[in-house]
What we know:
Blueprint: H1 9-14, H2 42-46, E1 52-56, H3 62-70, E2 75-80, H4 83-96, E3 101-105, H5 111-114, E4 120-126, H6 144-153, E5 154-164, H7 167-179, E6 183-188, H8 203-210, E7 216-221
Parallel strand pairs: 1-2, 1-4, 2-3, 4-5
Antiparallel strand pairs: 5-7, 6-7
Amino acid sequence: MRMRKKKHAGERLLACSELLIPLSPHELDYRQAEFNPCYLDFLSVFGNENPVQLEIGCGKGQFIARLAADNPDINYIAIEVCDDVAVLAAEGVKELGLKNVRFMVMPAEYLLKYFPENSVDRIYLNFSCPFPKLKYAKHRLTAPKFLYMYRKILKGDREIHQKTDNMHFFEFSIENFTEFGFTLQNVSLDLHNSGFEGNIMTEYEKRFTDLNQPIYRLEAVNRK
């Protein structure tokens, strides 16, 4: 379901400019991005050298805001491709006064332009679009082109945490993570009945749980 255009989204994002990481012009072919890097200086961005974790597809920001509030000694970068969605997340973080969250409004294809190798401590993929039609499988955030990027920017033995309500997407993810040499752990086919502790629900997760749909979760460890 497409989100309606937010009124004055550009102006509202500008009002949250202190939370936005400025972007360089993007190449038309994302495959060239890693060869024209504009690496982030995390010390300049956050003013400290705390570990950096990344959420790709932050939606309205409920998850990242709660995570950041619970972990003030970790820095978080939330990526969202749609400015009409990102503005809601940024406004929520600004209202809470959180200092350890920044946003990048861009497609995930350009990760390697901004993130150096071995620079990220964890990646979160929460309820990413499953692109159910096979011809669009390359756009899934656990497709090989994305796993290639994650492996480069993640530090060794660090994790990707994925949650989804889509069984077929979950199976697709497991297959690709395994083929790329990630080690899987804490795999759950029904998260909310698994006894797993410390879960932070997203807005989508609440909706699916209210409908009694199982939530699938895994952790993929980057073995370099």
